[in-house]
Specification:
- The complex is a heterodimer of chains A (about 500) and B (about 250).
- With about 500 residues, chain A is an all-alpha fold.
- Chain A has 2 domains: about 230 residues, MetI-like fold (Orthogonal Bundle); about 240 residues, MetI-like fold, CATH 1.10.3720.
- Chain A contains 22 helices and no strands.
- Chain B has about 250 residues and is of the alpha/beta class.
- Helix content of chain B is about 30%, strand content about 25%.
- Chain B is built from 8 helices and 10 strands.
- In chain B, the strands form 2 sheets. In chain B, strands 6-7-8-3-9-10 form a 6-stranded mixed β-sheet, with helices on both faces. A 4-stranded antiparallel β-sheet of chain B has the order 2-1-4-5, with helices on one face.
- In chain B, helix 3 packs parallel to helix 6 and helix 5 crosses helix 6.
- The chains are: A mainly alpha (about 500), B alpha/beta (about 250).
- At the A-B interface, helix 9 and helix 10 of A face helix 2, strand 6 and helix 4 of B.
- The structure holds adenosine-5'-triphosphate and magnesium ion.
Chain lengths: ~500, ~250
């Protein structure tokens, strides 16, 4: 038994070996020209620019970010729930629809989900030009698919027996459906839906870096002009926004028995649906499609993407995902284990927060100041950002864990590090690895972001093909992307199952 | 008055390689009160699931009002109400919401919606809960917070509120104390006068383990290993019958 636990523990540390090839390439690529810039970047964190002008800009930019973030959240959560319902077993059982449709919808959603919002964003921007609603649409597309998966999973927990009993009452089908799904839907909204708001604000910021607007755009511009003090003002204000939104949602308690509140929610629900539909129609009929005729340009454009190059890009993307996942898995337990005392803990927490806060493109651009672009650099960036996220989870789990083993071992005179490893972490290792498996699904998708900026893998190719309007190439790259993501998801699903 | 309401014709039910119901023929006439006896695992629950259409038999036909069950519409099927052995309530809803679920069949979608939002009328639900001796302090409690006997009575109230003429009950007296058992038995078999205008008398099939409760039944069916061993008037029940099935 003990041996088995030790296996999960060692599995959490082994992936740190990716640092060997990674470090080798990074060291070879180092250049000292930009160290001063990097230093300046770090120092500016403690000395952000604060004056009236910038505060006004921040308020304006944050408003935009909140606007895009909030509406994409609202629309994606509502349509996520709707698609979740129509891709859940219970729906097909109640309405006696052939399972065939269920598979089609799930497949369709899986493909949509496999492509990151940044990719949707840059494609849509290329087609329609830059505007606000592109940001909302770009976030909504993959978010609806992700949310619908979570809703559908929760709906699978409905007890088959309560379905049978409602079925035996012979209620109208929609009444049965509503009665059965009500609680799972509300609970998913409370436990998962609110957290998604934070995600959609982060996504808005990242899309902002690509020009959609909001605080992200300001961050990008100030980085481009090397205005680091301004950059940090934006970053800190973003931090405040994220912390505040987290706090507000922790305080709010949704009470479904409150009539006025219920009516308010239902109104919001239907207004959002109506609004989305009418906007969708408006969008279709009022957009200028003159400069974009996909079918036409698809067949006209030829691809000079050689098979060899294409395979190399796929391989790069896969290696990038693996390296980043390795860092995201092993770095947090390693660092927490080695620096196992209270003051280091606070320091690690702050550092992890910063890694989560600073959008990956900014981390990458900062690192590019003293390192040439390479696969390893992109992997390091993505790995660090995700390590910030896995680190937070690990801390939360460790803090809420029963510490008796640890204290007992400590009092036996076993070293602090060893007792942390065997008394605390070993019990977490399994569930931690399961979460990391889930996290690596996201890492695969996020390779697109660092790819575009750090000139590696399919992400970079996508940008190139898009800017030359080579739609055939774009399509091929997208198919490759989504295949990698789907295969990755299947493998991770197997891993997760064996861990839980 | 011998009109058949429910009929099983040569019913067999196979699960994997086990024959759980074995060539069952059964006629239930209007107004009959039938007790279903048989030891644990003999197939009582399975038989009830076949009778209410939840389980499709591997072989044979179920008929309700002389028509094949498959061909009936929703309204006709809803003439049967079931009290399940495992209750099958919705754990996250309150007791009164669960009881109101019994009214879903005769109401529209809007009613279901209001019920979940807690803004529908619970008058009828409360009436039946009171008949089941449920205290009004538990009306709005979630099912998962109730005691075993309270849950049992919520399930019974949900069935009674349907005011169906055909009742299938699977060990409905579980978890109840002796006084409650008498009350509930009278409710289920409609021995009490509820000041209702005269309807057709209630037909009931109740799976039981306790032989001392047989008094109010007209007929007794004994089942063993998925086969009906006897189907007789209660007055004719002898010790020898019971020895066969237990
Ligand atoms: N879902 C199921 N899957 C497989 N076998 C089942 C299932 N439900 C019941 N059985 C089997 O069918 C047989 C009859 O079960 P049933 O539940 O009908 O018995 P019962 O007479 O209601 O017993 P009890 O008095 O314990 O409730 C048993 O052997 C049981 O193991
Ligand atoms: Mg049973």
């Amino acid at each position: 038994m003990n041996k088995l636990k030790l296996n999960y523990t060692s599995l959490s540390f082994l992936p740190i070996l990716v640092c060997i090839p990674l470090g080798y390439q990074l060291i070879n690529n180092i250049h000292f020209g930009g160290f001063k810039l990097f230093q300046e970047f770090l120092i500016s964190a403690f000395n952000p620019k604060i004056d009236n002008e910038i505060i006004i800009t921040i308020i304006k930019r944050l408003n935009e970010t909140i606007f895009i973030g909030f509406f994409s959240w609202l629309v994606s959560i509502i349509f996520g729930a709707i698609f979740g319902i129509i891709s859940s077993n219970i729906f097909y059982k109640i309405f006696n629809i052939p399972k065939f449709f269920y598979r089609i919808i799930r497949f369709f959603l899986t493909i949509i989900r496999s492509i990151h919002e940044v990719v949707w964003g840059i494609i849509l921007m290329q087609i329609y030009g830059i505007n606000f609603s592109i940001g909302i649409i770009a976030i909504c597309i993959p978010y609806i698919a992700v949310n619908s998966k979570v809703f559908a999973e929760q709906l699978e927990t409905i007890d088959y027996k309560s379905f049978e009993s409602i079925n035996q009452i012979n209620a109208p089908k929609f009444s049965s459906l509503l009665t059965l799904i009500w609680n799972p839907i509300i609970n998913t909204f409370k436990n998962f839906g609110l957290y998604r708001l934070e995600c959609s604000i982060r996504s808005t910021v990242i899309l902002g870096l690509f020009g959609i607007g909001g605080i992200g755009t300001s961050i990008f511009l100030s980085f481009q002009t090397l205005n680091f003090r301004e950059l940090w003002t934006y970053l800190w204000s973003l931090a405040i926004l994220i912390i505040l939104s987290g706090l507000i949602f922790k305080k709010i308690k949704f009470n479904t028995t409150n009539k006025i509140l219920s009516i308010f929610f239902i109104t919001v629900f239907f207004v959002t649906i109506l609004f989305s539909f009418s906007y969708f129609l408006y969008f279709i009929f009022n957009n200028n499609f003159e400069n974009f005729n996909f079918v036409n340009s698809f067949f006209k454009s030829s691809s000079d993407l050689g098979l060899f190059v294409f395979l190399k890009l796929i391989l790069e993307t896969i290696i990038l995902s693996l390296l980043s996942t390795g860092i995201a898995i092993s770095l947090p337990p390693l660092v927490i284990g080695i620096f196992n005392n209270n003051s280091s803990k606070i320091f690690i927490k702050i550092f992890a927060f910063l890694l989560r806060l600073i959008p990956t493109p900014v981390i990458l651009l900062t690192l590019l100041t003293f390192n040439n672009p390479s696969l390893s650099l992109a992997a390091l960036t993505l790995g660090l950002h995700n390590a910030g996220i896995t680190c937070k989870l690990l801390f939360t789990n460790l803090d809420s864990q029963d510490k008796r083993n640890y204290i007992a071992m400590n009092s036996l005179g076993i070293s602090k590090k060893t007792s942390w490893l065997l008394g605390l972490f070993s019990q977490q290792a399994k569930s931690y690895l399961a979460y990391c498996a889930y996290r690596s699904d996201i890492i695969i998708r996020e390779t697109a972001i660092v790819g575009v900026i750090g000139s590696v893998g399919l992400g970079w190719q996508l940008k190139e093909s898009l800017s030359s309007f080579a739609w055939q190439e774009v399509t091929i790259v997208l198919i490759a992307y989504s295949s990698i993501a789907i295969v990755g998801e299947l493998i991770n699903g197997k891993i997760k199952n064996s861990l839980t | 008055m011998n009109n058949t309401v429910l009929e099983l014709e040569n019913i067999s039910y196979k699960y994997k390689n086990d024959l759980i119901l074995n060539k069952i023929n059964l006629k239930i006439n209007s107004g009959e009160k039938i007790a279903l006896l048989g030891k644990s695992g003999s197939g009582k629950t399975t038989l009830i699931s076949v009778l209410n259409g939840t389980i499709k038999p591997t072989q044979g036909e179920v008929k309700l009002f002389n028509e094949s069950f498959e061909e009936l519409d929703r309204k006709q099927k809803s003439k049967i109400t079931t009290i399940w052995q495992d209750l099958r309530l919705i754990e996250d809803l309150s007791a009164e919401q669960n009881v109101n679920c019994g009214l879903l069949a005769e109401n529209n979608f809007y009613f279901a919606f209001k019920n979940l939002l807690n803004i529908s009328s619970f008058k009828k639900a409360h009436k039946y809960m009171k008949l089941c001796r449920l205290h009004n302090s538990i009306y709005d409690k979630k099912i998962r917070k109730l005691s075993g006997g309270q849950k049992q009575r919520v399930a019974i109230a949900r069935s009674l509120i349907q005011e169906s003429n055909i009742l299938l009950a699977d060990e409905p007296f579980n978890n109840l104390d002796p006084k409650l058992i008498t009350t509930i038995k009278n409710l289920l078999l409609e021995n009490v006068d509820k000041n209702n205008t005269k309807k057709s008398p209630k037909t009931a099939l109740v799976a039981l383990h306790r032989l001392d409760l047989l008094n109010d039944f007209d007929k007794v069916i004994g089942i063993r290993d998925g086969k009906i061993f006897f189907n007789i008037k209660r007055n004719n029940l002898k010790k020898i019958h019971l020895e066969k099935i237990y």
